[in-house]
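Appendix B, example 12.
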Amino acid sequence: MSTDPRTPAEVADWLTEKATDAKAVAAERYPHDPTARRIDETAQLRLLVEQAAESLREFERHLDEIFRLNAELDLKQARHEYTTARLRRRIRHGRRSRAALRATRLEIAS
């Protein structure tokens, strides 16, 4: 799997440049035969479009991986915060259960 660090805009610019080059090459190879020139251009442009599509798929795979890693990180952070909150409660109130703490609060409130 190749990693293409280019953005879609950079890929589009690159494709435009390559298409221009392909037209120039076809004009040199087939100066008197417009049909052959068009066939050559079409084949080269098809190849360039396929490369662009692959670059975009690769870019989407990178984005999916980034989103997956961010979700994983969010989950780890949430677990960490939950565990920290539980530990703080245990430290603050000793080993008393939530029911015991609730009963104490009810006694104080009444």
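The CA atoms of residues 34 and 108 lie 95 Å apart. The chain has a mean pLDDT of 81.
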